[in-house]
């Protein structure tokens, strides 16, 4: 079995980026952190729109997102992720310096800790999209090039996220390791299974989720994006069955 070096590098860059961002972010004025958050929101929206464009099966993708959202609400995925984030915060709280533990911003996060919100948002951004799937499959087959590129991008993104959300962004490294590592281990089965239209459908569903994340970052609406995650599985299936 090939060592998934791309996934290992991705986890490392998220952790290093979080340390840099959390330590530096606590020293930034609130206005700077607010601008960083708005910039992240706009950039995430732009990526989401870009992911939507390639697919020719938007009605199927929309149906997959709607059904996925219903399933996610019934399964309470977002609530579970927030509880996991809070559990990780409690587990590692002693290791986080008090003076830089969680930088405040001008925008409070209601009913949840900023650590947990950073964990959920970063996990979604780092793991939603076709690059995660395709890169992890290639990583499992011995070609880490795509994930090394993603690792660099996620490293810079984690710096920006950590200036706002603090150490919770680093906990997303657990999500990256589990999801990308799991796909890499199953690479032999998945290779050749996903056609280009299926990947386009997956990307379009991920694009809709990224647009939802951008609404949260821009403080326009607290969309429960994690509850839409089943759509990432359903969209390529819908395209394969009815596309």
Number of strands: 0
Hey, roughly how much beta strand do the residues contain? under 5%
Order of helices and strands: HHHHHHHHHHH
Low-confidence stretches: 98-111
Number of helices: 11
Biggest β-sheet strands, sense, barrel: none
Basic shape: globular
Radius of gyration, CA atoms, in whole angstroms: 17 Å
What does the secondary structure layout of this molecule look like, with pairings?
Blueprint: H1 5-25, H2 30-52, H3 58-75, H4 77-92, H5 114-127, H6 130-140, H7 145-165, H8 168-185, H9 187-190, H10 196-217, H11 230-242
Helix pairs in contact: 1-7, 1-8, 2-7, 2-10, 3-10, 3-11, 4-5, 5-7, 5-8, 6-7, 6-8, 10-11
Describe this structure in words.
The chain is an all-alpha fold and 243 residues long. The protein has one domain (5-242). The chain has helices at residues 5-25, 30-52, 58-75, 77-92, 114-127, 130-140, 145-165, 168-185, 187-190, 196-217, 230-242. The longest helix is centred in the N-terminal third of the chain and has 23 residues, at 30-52. The chain is globular and about 50 Å long.
Short description:
74% of the residues lie in helices and 0% in strands.
């Amino acid at each position: 079995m090939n060592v998934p070096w791309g996934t290992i590098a991705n986890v490392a860059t998220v952790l290093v980026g979080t340390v840099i961002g959390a330590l530096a972010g606590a020293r930034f004025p609130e206005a700077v952190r607010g601008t960083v958050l708005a910039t992240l929101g706009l950039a995430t929206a732009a990526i989401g729109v870009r992911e939507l464009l390639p697919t020719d099966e938007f009605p199927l993708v929309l149906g997959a997102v709607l059904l996925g959202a219903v399933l996610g609400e019934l399964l309470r995925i977002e609530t579970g992720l927030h509880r996991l984030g809070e559990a990780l915060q409690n587990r590692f709280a002693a290791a986080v310096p008090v003076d830089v533990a969680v930088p405040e911003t001008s925008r409070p996060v209601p009913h949840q800790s900023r650590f947990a919100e950073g964990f959920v948002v970063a996990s979604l951004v780092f793991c939603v999209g076709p690059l995660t799937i395709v890169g992890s499959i290639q990583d499992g087959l011995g070609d880490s090039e795509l994930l090394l590129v993603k690792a660099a991008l996620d490293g810079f993104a984690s710096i920006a996220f950590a200036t706002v959300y603090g150490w919770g962004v680093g906990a997303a490294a657990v999500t990256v390791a589990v999801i990308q590592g799991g796909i890499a281990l199953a690479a032999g089965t998945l290779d050749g299974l996903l056609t280009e239209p299926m990947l386009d459908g997956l990307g379009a569903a991920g694009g809709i989720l990224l647009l939802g994340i951008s609404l949260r970052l821009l403080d326009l609406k607290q969309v429960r994006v994690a509850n839409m995650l089943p759509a990432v599985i359903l969209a390529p299936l819908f395209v394969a069955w009815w596309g």
